[in-house]
UniProtKB/TrEMBL annotation:
Pathway noted in the entry: Cofactor biosynthesis; NAD(+) biosynthesis; deamido-NAD(+) from nicotinate D-ribonucleotide: step 1/1
Protein name listed in UniProt: Probable nicotinate-nucleotide adenylyltransferase
GO molecular-function terms, A-Z: nicotinate-nucleotide adenylyltransferase activity
Gene3D superfamilies noted in UniProt: HUPs
Organism: Gracilibacillus xinjiangensis
Pfam families: CTP_transf_like (PF01467)
Limits of the Cytidyltransferase-like domain: 6-161
Gene: nadD
Entry's EC annotation: 2.7.7.18
CDD domains hit by this protein: NMNAT
Family to which this protein belongs: Belongs to the NadD family.
Protein function: Catalyzes the reversible adenylation of nicotinate mononucleotide (NaMN) to nicotinic acid adenine dinucleotide (NaAD).
Catalytic activity: nicotinate beta-D-ribonucleotide + ATP + H(+) = deamido-NAD(+) + diphosphate
Length: 188
């Protein structure tokens, strides 16, 4: 049975924190692959600042060269809010001989009680929680914890820096930086 990590998010833009998080889970759980799943319309926050096609392109650019990282655009094809339970059900039907591990940061561990159909979701997928500064990993749900170096980078920080004409060097990959500049993303 293959072991696949699923890493959902807006990735607006993807950054080194995302990549380190995925790598830590990949190594710690000895996964076969990690699939980055950009969401179309996240239920827990405002829509992304850039469109799904560009976010998918940025993720592909960020993970190029990693033999076990992939992008799965399953949620970009949906209209309306995109719920994790629907994604998991669809992937389990399509890949029946695969064990899925849903990767979330500490901020999302705290938010789990508010997730759509969380009790059923907790029964059908293994959550993997990765520590994040300022967030607790304590929860009533079944979470496998993975430690990672504390890297305090966020997509919001990157968008704010671009909007204020500040450098994002060393916060995201050079390839993502080129896409942001070329597409004039996040500028005021």
């Amino acid at each position: 049975m293959r072991k696949i990590g699923l890493f959902g998010g807006t990735f607006d833009p993807p950054h080194y924190g995302h990549l380190i998080m995925a790598e830590q889970v990949y190594e710690s759980l000895q996964l076969d692959e990690v699939w980055f799943i950009p969401t179309n319309h996240p239920p827990h926050k405002e829509d992304a600042k850039s469109n799904g096609i560009l976010r998918k392109e940025m993720i592909e650019a960020a993970i190029q060269g990693h033999p076990a990282f992939r992008v799965n655009g399953i949620e970009l094809n949906r209209t309306g809010k995109s719920y994790t339970i629907d994604t998991i059900r669809d992937l389990q039907r399509e890949y029946p001989d695969t064990a899925f591990y849903f990767i979330i940061g500490g901020d999302m561990v705290e938010y789990l009680p508010k997730w759509h159909q969380i009790d059923e979701l907790n029964e059908i997928v293994q959550f993997v929680g990765v520590n994040r500064p300022g967030h607790s990993m304590e929860t009533a749900y079944n979470i496998e914890e993975v430690e990672m170096p504390l890297i305090n980078i966020s997509s919001t920080m990157i968008r704010d820096r671009v909007a204020n004409d500040r450098s994002i060097r060393y916060l995201t990959t050079p390839e993502v930086k080129v896409i942001i500049e070329k597409s004039k993303l996040y500028q005021r």
